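Hi R.,

As promised on Friday, here is the backbone we talked about, encoded as structure tokens. Could you run it through your design pipeline when you get a chance and send me back a sequence?
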């Protein structure tokens, strides 16, 4: 297979599985849940019902001439799984449909998705304007690694559109955000940010990991590209690491796909299969996570050891007005400050018996973290303070257990504070 590692097989457009092909068992006008269950699987001659895992690194040609034609891009078809794989394509088509994009490419992780977007769409001398409240590794990627290749990033407040506009200069090519933010659940107005981006000839890239398309569709609001860490809610049960980029055929299907097939951080077929199964229950899960999170947030408000609760679904959340028009429900993440700072926060975490002390989120199992000493531990204390991440802050990614059991698990620790 050495030749596949050096030959360019043409853009993703040469892939055989285009919308409209027989692999689409549900039309694009079908409802969200139907598409989440039905789109993307082309039944093989074995007539399997569940999507098969194509655990193969390469694909066979019937003749030397066919091999040559596929490599030349004259005949569509699979060549090598770093380029295309049917199980991965099924996941890509399903997620593209759910996000309302023309094209999706799957990646080895959420960070690989963000890296591939930057490598595919930016060049030396370009600038990014990014929300300050993005995933820690995203900040590191922008500040430490992209900076080495001459791409600079300026960080602004997610919820202040004027700050975004003021930060844009004539070298700025990309605006980047996550909404709601982690861990403080601050929200950005995506329609506003898209309008600002396009007025300045920039792309708006949105990390839609926390809401998923079941709750929020950034492309409908004007964003150009959506990135995902499929590791979180798309999987939904904490099994696999993966990611995805969704957008138009030119930028995603050619530029981003080109980076992936050349540089190699593609998704494994097995992981794609797990994510396909995850998408089938995505909407049900997101609504159930949200319902439990709202009940937990309301309950936390009544606890005397709790100083403040951060949840978009609460009426006093500063951007509560965006719940509904922009994001269907409050989502599954609730954060809160306890009185007594770090020691109290650690004592509360250590008092839990059911909730998992782990960094992942978007799992059916509820997880708890202390951002100041874990996900945001590498920030300087003054940077943390500027971001509003106090020593008493706790983040709960609410799972799908009975909410009474989650409340009881936290109640014993809160009583001891
Ligand atoms: C986890 C996460 C990422 C990174 O995804 P990986 O799959 O861990 O690489 C990016 N953005 C957000 C918002 C995340 O929560």
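Update: got your reply. Pasting your designed sequence below so it's all in one thread:
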């Amino acid at each position: 297979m050495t030749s596949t590692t050096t030959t360019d097989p043409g853009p993703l457009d040469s892939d055989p599985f285009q919308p409209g092909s027989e692999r689409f068992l549900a039309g694009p006008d079908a409802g969200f849940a139907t598409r989440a269950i039905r789109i993307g699987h082309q039944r093989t001659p074995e007539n399997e019902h569940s999507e098969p895992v194509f655990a193969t690194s390469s694909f066979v040609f019937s003749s030397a001439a066919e091999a040559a034609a596929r490599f030349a891009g004259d005949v569509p078809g699979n060549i090598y799984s770093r380029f295309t794989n049917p199980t991965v394509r099924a996941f890509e088509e399903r997620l593209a449909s759910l996000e309302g994009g023309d094209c999706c490419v799957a990646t080895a992780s959420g960070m690989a998705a963000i890296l591939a977007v930057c490598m595919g769409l930016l060049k030396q001398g370009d600038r990014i304007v990014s929300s300050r409240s993005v995933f820690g590794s995203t900040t590191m990627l922008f500040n430490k690694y992209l900076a080495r290749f001459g791409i600079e990033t300026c960080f602004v407040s997610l919820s202040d559109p004027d700050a975004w506009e003021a930060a844009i200069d004539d070298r700025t090519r990309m605006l980047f955000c996550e909404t709601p933010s982690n861990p403080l659940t601050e929200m950005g107005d995506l329609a506003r940010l898209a309008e600002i981006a396009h007025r300045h000839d920039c792309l708006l890239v949105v990390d839609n990991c926390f809401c998923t398309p079941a709750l929020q569709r950034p492309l409908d609001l004007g964003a150009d590209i959506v990135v995902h860490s499929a590791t979180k809610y798309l999987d939904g049960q904490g099994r696999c690491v993966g990611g995805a980029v969704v957008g138009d055929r030119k930028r995603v299907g050619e530029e981003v796909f080109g980076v992936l097939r050349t540089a190699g951080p593609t998704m494994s077929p097995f992981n794609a299969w797990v994510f396909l199964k995850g998408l089938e229950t995505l909407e049900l899960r997101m609504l159930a996570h949200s319902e439990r999170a709202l009940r937990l947030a309301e309950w936390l408000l009544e606890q005397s050891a709790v100083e403040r609760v951060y949840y978009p679904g609460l009426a006093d959340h500063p951007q509560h007005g965006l719940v509904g028009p922009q994001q269907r429900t409050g989502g599954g993440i609730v954060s809160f400050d306890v009185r007594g700072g770090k020691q109290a926060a650690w004592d509360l975490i250590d008092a839990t018996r059911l909730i998992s002390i782990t960094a992942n989120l978007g799992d059916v199992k509820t997880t708890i973290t202390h951002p100041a000493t874990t996900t945001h531990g590498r920030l300087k204390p003054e940077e943390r303070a500027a971001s509003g991440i106090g020593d008493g802050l706790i983040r709960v990614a609410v799972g799908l257990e009975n909410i009474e059991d989650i409340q009881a698990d936290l109640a014993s620790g809160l009583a001891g504070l």
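One thing I noticed while checking it: The first strand starts at residue 103 and ends at 107.

Thanks again,
M.
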